[in-house]
Amino acid sequence: MDDPHVNNDTNQQIISLEGIKIKQIKDEARQDPNQFWSDCAKNLVWFKEWQQVLDWNYPFAKWFVGGKLNAAYNCLDKHLTTKKKNQAAIIWEGEDGESVTITYNQLFRRVNQLANSFKRMGIKKGDRITIYLPMIPELPISMLACARIGAIHSVIFSGFSSQSIIDRVNDAKSKIIITADGGYRRGKIVPLKRIVDEAVKNTPSIEKVIVVKRTHEDLIMGENDIWFENLVNKESSFCPPEWMESNDPLFILYTSGTTGKPKGVVHGSGGYLTHLYISAKWVFDFNATDIFFCTADIGWITGHSYIVYAPLMHGVTEIIYEGAPDFPDPDRYWKIVEKHGTTILYTTPTALRSYMRYGNEIPNSYDLSSLRLLGTVGEPINPEVWKWYFDVIGKKNCPIIDTWWQTETGGIMISMCPGIENLKMKPGSGSFSLPGIEIEIVDDRGIKIEDGKKGYLTIKKPWPGMLISLWNNKERYKETYWQKAENSFFTGDFAYQDNDKYIWVLGRADDILKVAGHRLGTIELESAFVSHPSIAEAAVTSKRDKIKGETIIAFLVLRKEIQPTQNLSIEVNEHIKRTIGPIASAEKIYFVNKLPKTRSGKIMRRLLKSIVNKETIGDISTLEDEASIEEISHELDAINKQI
Ligand code: WTA
């Protein structure tokens, strides 16, 4: 497991800033975890207290068993008796530069109206509602309205296609889809309602489609389509909250795994919200005057956890931005920071890499002095980019939190905690696990390995934000997360710990790609390629990319008598965009006669990855011992010639 990042001295330079001590909190968590998490949970408002902190029936964890609460109540109602009531909850910034401010009270009223509409439509606790919206206020409003009545939301990123909607809606058996007439992306209109119209031809469970007006397209409204405005305006602005058992599902979020079918990750409310509340306190150290800007899309877990639930529970004012970071100019985040006096910026290495490319002049021309804390998430950050973020954006005054976590973990697991600790930062390392979270790096056999060696990142003990299960698929849950390392949660990432115990996450160890921070499965992509009538077989791998981290490279075998042409390559890529979404388009397509496979038929993706990244392949026989080397080496030569 050699890796160029391991023990690289330049990565390990320590940058220190002042803070408070964390050790005591970690000790408390270790000595009595149940008491510790129970104290954390007391930050939430509970309708009924729990009888048991943790029911650990390996590998299923139930947190705060018997406790009852409501997620929307914790985000909204609790502020209505405080000064926050008429303060800004959301500052929404449109791609066209328009801004709208929504106070906690206004947000509360809108959420309650929609919740009442759901009830009028016959939606009950436990029913599923799919949300396919761009980054507009109706997206968090819809999620919170579901939470208010105990309906389970399933948000689909608005960059996904009709087919992706079909798969997710049919798995969840949702009754309603909420969408918009269109969404803006780089000045162009994405016809969301039309994409949904295509999908609903194949989603028998859908009874109604609710449509928000955003782009004011001319639409044909079918008999099951209802305008959002017409629906909610007549409703009362109070809907009693449904008190949910702590482990009742709050939402399903589909995410790519190592098979063709996306997994429906299920989170509850008691444990999940406790994890979010406390992690946000430690990591972001939220206070009453903060203006928090998380640039993620709510269609991914970062948006669910740290745009919708955590900041609203803390009563923070947050910015939600509708558009692309570089539209109309590559300065949009800096412009927003200046315009609204942002104090905390939480973004991705991909966004930073693309801004860095334009030089320092653009960010230097904005007043960024309101910033006090900078964060990143979603991919490893290269030390050069980290330093640029620290120097040019934070002017050497703002700590950087490199937060590692996953859809499955619910909330942040590894990060510096400016709220509670001395900050000795190493650019490129997330540093340590949060209090109460026990990380272990293990080898192929699940045995802990020594510091400095690369291995698999695992989590030793259940934690409150842990997924409850996979939707309708307990077996896959067990198999995916609990069978690779004994009694530990398998994250699928490679990592190592240096001599100071800092954790360095190196990227995925499985068939999952991170393209511009978006999570995509290679097998899911391969199935999409093979669904094109000209393609017989497909192998997908990734190539390192200076901006996006990774890009998609596809090796395709054509059906008999089909000739490889430039046009076919374009057509196949269009097919992928239609099948999965524009984020899945391939950087490069190679037409080959044969894919390198083992005798048992497994595609040697690791080998292809080494080739496209121009790494030394070494002895092929050690990679896949069943492989027929001679047979494939001829094909590899042909691929090499094309690259
Ligand atoms: C990767 C995103 C390095 C990792 C919140 C993980 C990171 C996957 C970091 C989960 C980080 C996330 N450093 N890698 N700070 N944060 N990752 O489910 O590979 O979209 O397993 O959740 O992103 O992606 P997901």
From TrEMBL:
Tree of life domain: Archaea
Name recorded for this polypeptide: Acetate--CoA ligase
Ranges for domain AMP-dependent synthetase/ligase: 83-463
Keyword ATP-binding on entry: yes
Residue intervals of the Acetyl-coenzyme A synthetase N-terminal domain: 25-75
Pfam families named among the record's database cross-references: ACAS_N (PF16177), AMP-binding (PF00501), AMP-binding_C (PF13193)
PROSITE patterns membership: AMP_BINDING (PS00455)
Biological process annotations from GO: acetyl-CoA biosynthetic process from acetate; carbon fixation by 3-hydroxypropionate cycle
CDD domains for this protein: ACS
Molecular function in Gene Ontology: 3-hydroxypropionyl-CoA synthetase activity; acetate-CoA ligase activity; AMP binding; ATP binding
InterPro entries assigned to the protein according to its UniProt record, in alphabetical order: Ac_CoA_lig (IPR011904), ACAS_N (IPR032387), AMP-bd_C (IPR025110), AMP-bd_C_sf (IPR045851), AMP-binding_CS (IPR020845), AMP-dep_synth/lig_dom (IPR000873), ANL_N_sf (IPR042099)
UniProt keyword annotations, A-Z: ATP-binding, Ligase, Nucleotide-binding
Residue stretches in coiled coil: none
